[in-house]
Amino acid sequence: MFKTEPPAAAPIASLDRRSLLKGGVLGAGALSAPLSAQMASGKTGFTHGVASGEPGVDKVLLWTRYVADQSLALEWQVSETADFASTVAGGSALPRAENDWCAKSWADGLRAGTWYYYRFIAPDGTVSDIGRTRTLPEGPTARWRMAVFSCSNIGFGWFNAYAHAAEANEFDCTLHLGDYFYEYPQGTYPSERETLPGRAPLDPQGETVALAEYRARYATYRADKDLQRIHQLYPMISGWDDHESSNDSWEGGAQNHQPETEGSWSVRKAAAMKAYREWMPVSDRPWETYEIGDLATLYRLETRLSARAQQFDYGSLLRGMASQEEGIARLTAFRNGDYLDPTREVLGSDQQAWLAEGLKASRRAGKTWQVLVQQVLMGKVASATSLTDTLPEGLPDFVRQRVISGAMASRAELPLNMDAWDGYPAARARLYEAALAADANLISLAGDTHNAWAFDLAHDGEAAGVEFGVQGVTSPGLENFLPQLAPEDIARALVARNPELKWMDASRRGYMAVELTPGSASSEFRFLSSVREKGAGVVATRRVTTLAGARTLDAIG
Question: How far apart are CA 90 and CA 78, in angstroms?
Answer without folding.
Answer: 6
